[in-house]
Amino acid sequence: MFIAMNRFKVVKDATGEFEQVWLGRDSHLGEMEGFVEFHLLRGPEAEDHVLYASHTVWRSRADFEAWTRSEQFRKAHGRVPGTRPLYLGHPQFEGFETIQTVARSDAA
């Protein structure tokens, strides 16, 4: 498995607008081979921003890389018209290869 994360430092007074952009968008992720799941995470608050992360799980790094080259990716990442800058700087990408997975056992 491969986990792809982008971290966003969202301006404090823009958190509602940022969340609405994500909640209202058509991600096209479900159209992609190897896509497992997506999460939008809200994290800690700092003096000038709130930290958010988008978190996708893929069957493999190759599946994620195919997504980044796809027409679905271009459609999902098109600029939202009329929005002001919602976050500080550029998102910070982090990619992780899965080393170990521990799943809950319901056999108890």
Give a structural overview.
The chain has 3 helices and 4 strands, in the order βαββααβ. The model has no long low-confidence stretch (mean pLDDT 91). The chain has a 4-stranded antiparallel beta sheet. A hairpin with a 3-residue loop joins strand 2 and strand 3. It has one domain (2-97): 2-Layer Sandwich (Alpha-Beta Plaits). The chain is globular, with a radius of gyration of 16 Å. The protein is an alpha+beta fold. Residues 2-96 form the ABM domain. Pfam families: ABM. Keywords: Oxidoreductase. This is Heme oxygenase (Staphylobilin-producing). One of its GO terms (molecular function) is heme oxygenase (decyclizing) activity.
List descriptors.
4 strands, 22% helix, alpha+beta, Heme-degrading_MO, Alpha-Beta Plaits, 3 helices, 39% strand, four-stranded antiparallel β-sheet, 108 residues
Summarize this, please?
The relative contact order is 0.31.
Strand order of the biggest β-sheet: 2-3-1-4
Based on the coordinates given, report the CATH architecture. 2-Layer Sandwich
Unreliable stretches (pLDDT < 50, length at least 5) are none
Order of secondary-structure elements: EHEEHHE
**CATH hierarchy class name:** Alpha Beta
- Our count of domains comes out at 1
Structural class: alpha+beta
In the CATH hierarchy, the third-tier topology is known as Alpha-Beta Plaits
Tell me the helix content. 10-25%
The largest pleated sheet is described as: 4 strands, antiparallel
Radius of gyration, whole Å: 16 Å
Shape descriptor reads globular
Count of DSSP E strands? Answer: 4
Mean pLDDT: 91
How many helices in DSSP terms?
A: 3
Binned strand content: 35-45%
- Kindly report how far apart the N and C termini lie: 27 Å
